[in-house]
Specification:
With 275 residues, the protein is mostly helical. It has helices spanning 5-22, 32-44, 48-61, 66-81, 85-98, 105-117, 128-143, 148-177, 181-194, 201-214, 218-231, 236-247. The longest helix has 30 residues, at 148-177.
Length: 275
């Protein structure tokens, strides 16, 4: 008896479904534990490309497995170890977005921030990557202030503050040398407002004094000198500023200020223009 066309189509459909059902059990299919273990072994052997491939396969075969979640994080670590910082950032960003309450979220945030930090450019170049590292470390400290990664992040933040402050001083000095004093002042004030604890603060104050003297703004110059003298009494920049004040015959115009008017921790850069 001949089969009808509709019966043939139905049988073909059943065969297709049967084939699809069996596909997960093909020779390529592995358990989540096995794939995760293989990925970790590749990591130990420093075979980072194979590690990321294995962790990616783990996510494909077992998207809802806890091992797949761990694999996402370790894939980010593998990219980082391979100096593939952009890929590490993308992978870790995905992990952080999908698993905001994961027990390893602080570590993921730290590794992402450090991937930006590793790409920190020379002070002569654009500092967008440095600023992103600064933002990422700051967010980690704010969210997990008691984690062990917060302490490490704080150390990196201090380094970044010095680096970014150095960039501001360099650009400020260029503007100042060209006679664009207001543009230079803006850069030096950025150091005082955003990177107040950096090692470039004394020089920034000295450069501000130079700019204000060049602009004929005596009051601001003298006030800044007193701030420099109060906060950095033995620094090279205080001595140079003293010489500058004497050279311009401004030393006789110096006056006393209250301590709260001189303490950098209590001052805003805008205050310098109000005296």
């Amino acid at each position: 008896m001949h089969l009808k066309i509709s019966q043939i189509i139905f049988l073909a459909f059943l065969i297709s479904c049967s084939s699809n059902d069996e596909r997960p059990y093909s020779s390529d299919f592995k358990s989540d534990i096995k794939l995760y273990s293989e990925g970790m072994n590749f990591l130990k052997k420093k075979e980072y490309d194979k590690a990321t491939e294995t962790f990616n396969e783990l996510e494909i075969q077992h998207p809802y497995s806890a091992f797949a979640t761990k694999g996402q994080l370790m894939a980010g670590f593998a990219h980082y170890k391979a100096n593939e910082y952009e890929e590490a950032i993308l992978t870790l960003s995905k992990f952080i977005e999908l698993n905001p309450n994961h027990q390893s979220i602080a570590y993921a945030m730290y590794l992402k921030a450090y991937s930006y930090y590793e790409r920190m450019p020379d002070v002569n170049l654009d500092q967008n990557l440095s600023k992103r590292a600064f933002e990422e470390f700051s967010e980690l400290i704010n969210r997990f202030p008691k984690s062990k990664y917060a302490k490490k992040s704080l150390e990196h933040l201090n380094s970044l503050k010095n680096h970014l402050a150095a960039r501001e001083v360099k650009v400020g000095k260029f503007y100042q040398s060209q006679g664009f004093f207001l543009a230079g002042i803006k850069r030096y004030k950025t150091v005082l407002s955003e990177y107040k604890k950096s090692t470039h603060v004394p020089e920034s104050i000295f450069r501000l004094i130079e700019c204000y003297i060049s602009m004929g703004l005596t009051k601001q110059s003298l006030y800044l000198y007193k701030i420099l003298e109060y906060n950095f009494p033995k620094s090279q920049w205080q001595k140079e500023a003293r010489g500058l004040i004497i050279k311009n015959k401004l030393n006789k115009k110096l006056k006393k200020f209250r301590k709260k008017q001189l303490d950098l921790d209590k001052l805003n850069p805008a205050d310098f223009d109000l005296i």
